[in-house]
Every structure is written in structure tokens, then in C-alpha cells.
């Protein structure tokens, strides 16, 4: 991890809230927590929109979690770059199941 711009104010006696989009492996967050500890933050809490505990490589836990997710937020490698979180229509899933079913019969 390369820090391009370090914190320019003192964190002594400061409560810090780290806001993360997705907590997956935890490796980046582990680095950030260590960095904040070196800055003598009074306390550090973690808030994540999505928590993916199956992907964890280090022991780290969010204090505040929007939603726990399983394998990912895409569908067959599609929809990864949407600017929002949505719900996939069951018609799309049914269509794909039918296509996969007919291909396996051929």
C-alpha cells in the first residue's frame, strides 16, 4: 500500500470513524488501522456498507455494517460497475437458467 497523502492533523485524543464500501479480505483495513494507531488516535471504529466475512484473510470486524454479503455483488461477472446497488430481475435469472439448460441438452 502506498500512502499518497498522509493525515495532516494530529489524531491524538481523536475518535476516528473509517468508512469503507466493502470489507472483504481486510488487508487494506488492517494497514489503515495500524497507521491510525501510529498516529495515536483515541479510538478507531469501522463502518462498512457491505461486509463479506467469507473473504477475510485477517481477523478484523466492522463495528457498523449495512449488509452482509456472500460471494459478490455481480451476476455472472456483469453489473460490477453500476453506480448504485440494485436488485436483479428474476426474469433475467430465469432467462439465463433456460439458456443454460438448453445448451446443456445440445
- What general outline do the C-alpha atoms trace? elongated
What is the N-to-C order of secondary-structure elements (H for helix, E for strand)?
EHEEH
**Poorly predicted runs:** none
Q: Helix segment count?
A: 2
Give the end-to-end Cα distance, rounded to a whole number of Å.
49 Å
Q: What radius of gyration results from the CA coordinates? A: 19 Å
Strand content: 15-25%
**Total count of strands:** 3
Q: Which class best fits the helix and strand makeup? A: alpha/beta
Return the average pLDDT rounded to an integer.
Answer: 87
Helix content: 25-40%
Biggest β-sheet, characterized?
Answer: 3 strands, parallel
User: In order across it, which strands form the biggest sheet?
Assistant: 1-2-3
Explain what the structure shows.
The protein has 106 residues and is of the alpha/beta class. It is 26% helix and 22% strand. The chain has helices at 27-38, 90-105; strands at residues 15-23, 43-51, 64-68. A three-stranded parallel β-sheet has the order 1-2-3. The longest helix is centred in the last third of the chain and has 16 residues, at 90-105. The chain starts with 14 loop residues before the first strand and ends with a helix. The mean pLDDT is 87.
Amino acid at each position: 500500500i502506498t500512502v499518497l497523502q498522509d493525515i495532516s492533523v494530529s489524531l491524538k485524543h481523536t475518535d476516528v470513524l473509517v468508512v469503507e464500501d466493502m470489507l472483504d479480505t481486510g488487508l487494506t483495513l488492517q494497514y489503515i488501522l495500524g497507521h491510525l494507531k501510529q498516529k495515536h488516535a483515541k479510538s478507531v471504529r469501522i463502518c462498512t456498507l457491505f461486509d463479506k466475512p467469507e473473504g477475510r484473510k485477517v481477523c478484523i470486524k466492522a463495528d457498523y455494517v449495512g449488509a452482509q454479503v456472500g460471494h459478490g455483488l455481480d451476476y455472472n461477472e456483469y453489473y460490477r460497475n453500476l453506480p448504485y446497488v440494485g436488485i436483479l430481475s428474476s426474469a433475467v435469472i430465469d432467462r439465463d437458467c433456460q439458456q443454460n439448460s438448453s445448451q446443456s441438452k445440445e
